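ok so I'm stuck.
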Amino acid sequence: MPLPTPRYSTLPRLTGALALAAACLASTAWAASASEQLALYVSQAGAVGAPARGQAFFTQKHGREWSCSTCHGELPTQTGKHAATGKPINALAPAFNPERFSDAAKTEKWFRRNCNDVVGRECSAAEKADVLSWLLLLKR
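replied:
not stuck anymore, here's the structure
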């Protein structure tokens, strides 16, 4: 007995959903190091990160109460301290904390939260590239 022919095919929807999932993964999840994460931001921004702009962005206030350096320190090579909770924050510079920027999902989560505290919005890919390019210059 032949199988009934469905009235519609789910294949186009399934293919579209898989393509969308693959595009999302390709845009963020592939980064496994700070350098790869920087390459992703540079690609998204369409411009190379500028370390001097990154340092300025990190240390200056942007109309809000805190700057990045409020919690991470002027030079984020040592343990910082959250301004409100006092909770210790491990060094942000990848040379001083190899786990930093090694997980794309965590990187995006913390950029989203911290940029909201510092700038009142999500940071752009160019701002992320600038900050990360500066952080990668900080060596032991």
